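worker-03 picked up job from queue 'complexes'. Input manifest follows; two sequence lines, order preserved.
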Amino acid sequence: KAGVTQTPRYLIKTRGQQVTLSCSPISGHRSVSWYQQTPGQGLQFLFEYFSETQRNKGNFPGRFSGRQFSNSRSEMNVSTLELGDSALYLCASSLVSDSEAFFGQGTRLTVV
Amino acid sequence: AQSVTQLDSQVPVFEEAPVELRCNYSSSVSVYLFWYVQYPNQGLQLLLKYLSGSTLVKGINGFEAEFNKSQTSFHLRKPSVHISDTAEYFCAVSGMDSSYKLIFGSGTRLLVRP
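worker-03 finished. Artifact:
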């Protein structure tokens, strides 16, 4: 069974641009969560989607947004990129909300 | 709200020696507890989890952890480490009322030396 797939793996963007990251969960998983990992702040929860509805959002500015499609695939978007947005963005999927979260390999975003 | 503290940022240990990685948490509600491992340029892999039941939890690769409610701890142990165990280890907690949201500790880098 295929794992969580995140695309692209690496991305370089310029300040002020916007970016869209994609996450394909494990087949049958309906919950998708996003996390940001930086050396300074560690792993921080961005948001979670279940059946196309955002159930919770972490403490991030409105420039960070996401959505989930009917096939459970999810995208996150960051607008007006700042240097501090450089990070590893991880997506996790789970079958139901209290089951194991399976993580993708992440997208490494570098903002220059 | 929940929080997780991993006091040791790095733990050096010789190969075949035992190791314990410490994790303490705080929460106003009952929690689920997890340990994840991250190898360089990789995502997170679940080592073990505590949802309920026996407080001693066994995971993959010979790791185990014990949930201690009175001390709000969930320390990770392995009786004999290998070079291949060198990685970053993260303790995480989620509230039973918001179990899809993981709160992570700052991580402990386990460095296994020959």
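worker-03 released lock.
Chain A touches chain B at residues 4, 31, 33, 35, 42-45, 48, 50, 55-56, 58, 90, 92, 94, 97-98, 100-106, 108 (CB under 8 Å).
The longest strand of chain A covers residues 42-50.
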